[in-house]
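Following up on my earlier thread - several people asked me to post the actual chain instead of describing it. Fair enough. Here it is, all 191 residues.
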Amino acid sequence: KTGKTPLHYAVGNGHERCVWAILSPPKWASEEDLNLVPESSSSSRRGSRRASQLNIESARLDIRDNEERTALVEGYIMMWTKPSESARRAVTTLACFAGQQTNGADIVNEAKKEADIEIRKMWKQSSQLVTNAADGNVDRVRAELLEFSSPNSISGREPKSPAISVAAECGHLDIVKLLLEFKADLLLKDE
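Reply from S.P.:
Thanks for posting it. Predicted structure:
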């Protein structure tokens, strides 16, 4: 079991239209339902559903899955892989929805911080990334980074240099820019 909600799945897989559907109020919902009127309140409309019957759990932004990630954190992690335009819009839609909440800016900023921490945990050292950086192979460096190779990977031979230093030494501007885009640390030194 993953503990994921429909919103986790929709944003994590980049399904923008599903994110919209989950975040939009159901067509059958009355104003009473949308205001989350308690069950004990009277309703003059026949067939109107009560707030307790609304499936609002899937749209709550604070629900965490078994990995302790909210849907927005899941979306920001997915953004690392440079997904399709539709997938980026799914995350943007959720972030905009979050931003409209009472403490929206805090929700968005916290999700970004959490995603950054999670991504860094997923990073793995890759001497192949450093080799590709030295060779000037932008496509292979990008592929390595998208597979969570650390942009701070160190070469396996002496001197042990970070990928960005190797790329800078060789004059591979596109690779330097790419490593910076993937948050390479500019303060790393040769070992």
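DSSP finds ten helices and no strands in the chain. That should answer part of your original question.
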